[in-house]
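Fold this sequence, please.
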Amino acid sequence: MDLLIEAAYDLAKSRLAVQPEYDGETWQLDEADSGLRQAATVTIEIESNADPKLRNVEIIVELGGESTSKIRDRKTWTISLPLSEQS
């Protein structure tokens, strides 16, 4: 689960570096295609911050399909936009 959170965080940082209006995305990972033991959903949510030079990033990972119980983990960060995007 931690690797999925880390990958999503790295993606969010790199997208925000080139596209400050990026607002997130969701991935659906099938267990057969991804090599995971169960299906997973990864959600990246980006929200503005009171400081226009910052963005709030929330990553949510859910493991488990519709017919199984789910495990959820959530992490949040506040990150700076690149200097070139700050006004």
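The helical segments are 2-18, 31-34. Residues 2-81 form one domain.
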